[in-house]
Request: fold
Amino acid sequence: AAILTLCLRRGPRVLWGQARQIFGQWSLWLWIGFFAYNLVAARLLGGNPRGPLRWIGFLFLYFLAAETAMERPSWPRRLCAILAWLGTAVALHGLYQFWKIPTYVRLEGLFLQHNIFSAYLSLCLPAMAIYTRLPSRVPAAVRWLMLMASSIAFILSYSRGAWLGLAIGSISLAGTGWFHGFNTRARRAGALV
Reply:
C-alpha cells in the first residue's frame, strides 16, 4: 500500500529518477533483471513468485532510508550510532551465552537462531565501522572495542550465508564507489544505509 501510494503521489517518472540517483542505474537494472528472471522461472518451474517479491519491501525501505538521509544530513550519523550500540548489546549478550553455557557451539544471542543473529550483525557491522571514524563523545577506544566484540560474535555465529552476504555487499559497495565515486550525497547515504 505504501509503495502504491508513493507511486500515485509522485508519479513513475519522478520515482524512476530518484531510484536511479539512489541505487545507481546499473544496480537498478540488475534488480529489475533479477525480478524478471525469478518471476519467469517461478512461473515456468511451478515455483512460488513471492520469494523474490519479498525483496521489494527491502528495496523500498532502503529507498526511504536513503531519501531521508539526503533530506536530513544528521540522520546517517544517528543511525550509525544507534546500530552500533544495539549491535554491540546483542553481540555481548551472545558472547555471554557462548561463554556461560558450555553446550553452545554457535552464537544465537537474543534471536534464538544463529543465522538471524548474524544477519542482524551484518547490518550493524558496517555502521559500527563508520561509527569508529565519526566524531563522538564516546572515546575512540570504546568504539573500536564495540566493533571488535561484534566482529568476534559475528564470526562465532558460524553463519556462512551472513559472512558471504557481508563480503559480497562490501565488495559491491566498494566497487560502486570506485566506479561512480562517492561524491554524490545519494550514493554516500545509500552506501551508509
